[in-house]
Write a structure and sequence with these properties.
Elements lengths: L1 H9 L3 H18 L4 E3 L2 E3 L1 H19 L9 H4 L1 H18 L5 H19 L4 H10 L4 H22 L6 H10 L1 H4 L4 E9 L2 H12 L4 H8 L15 E2 L5 H9 L9 E3 L2 E11 L6 H30 L3 E3 L3
Antiparallel strand pairs: 1-2, 1-7, 3-4, 3-6, 5-6
Helix pairs in contact: 3-5, 5-8, 6-8, 9-14
Amino acid sequence: MGNFGRLVRTKPWLVPLVALLLITVIFMIISSNVAAYVGGKIITPAQLAERLNIIQFSYDLQFGHTADYQPDFAQQNRREVLAQLAEEQLLLEAAQGLASEEEQAEYAAQLLDWLKNNLFQGDLTGFQEKLASHHIDEEDLRVYFGNNLLLTRLYEQVVTGITVDESEAQAYYEEHKASFDQPEMVKVAHILVADEQEAETLLQQLQQGADFALLAKEHSLDEESAPYGGDLQWFSRGQMEPAFEEAAFALEPGQISPIIVTSHGYHIIKAEAKEPAQERTYEQVAKQAHQRVLTMKQEQAWNDFRQQLQADKLVLLLAR
């Protein structure tokens, strides 16, 4: 009970006053129709609705065309969004003064320009229609992005000065040595087509000596790898669809697979190089070990800071 317990013993008349205060606060919150009470300030249902709309907007841009897309993602996570919004109020209060209004406006403008030019390819009408369909506008995003700059500056302030010495990094390496090992890797090129007959025709041409890279450039539907002769980056197990992975790792450099069927279509794979699994010494991964420990210490410092902020303020989440 700490100090409060001592106060109760010496001044028992405080108990009903504290209880009355809490009842009054809760009554005011409920009667005012607010979503949350955060350290003397409120979050209104309108503010919560706006944040839910921004979250859904962002989600739709990233996952709108995926198989497991959820059209009500934000609403499904309504409680978590409210908790995040409440914590954000505390963090923004602590971050005041870390970025000027001009800096926030410039940062927000850069992000808006990036959205328009990259995700909407300069289609301003499409951008505005997308915003409107989510019941938000550019000003909502400007405020949201500007606040993100403040939060970034606050995080940087909290973690500044955190260091990692050699003994910490080496101890971490010894305890997590297996996680630094290089797994078996393979590098392949592939040709992807939608029609099985076309795949069979291409395979016959390859078996007769046709140039794999040229056929990939001319026929592959993989827009990222086709211009490079079908070349894919090095990958380890667990990164590709099982059928593709099994075929790729079964090949020796220079070999060409039979037709492989995945959810993307029909593949012909050519193995280019393989690397066996191997252990890495501390000297080989020292920088990586340092970075892992630094990240852990920074995350711990940030979490401690957030928890202390919430411990110092009364936070009540009311909306369901």
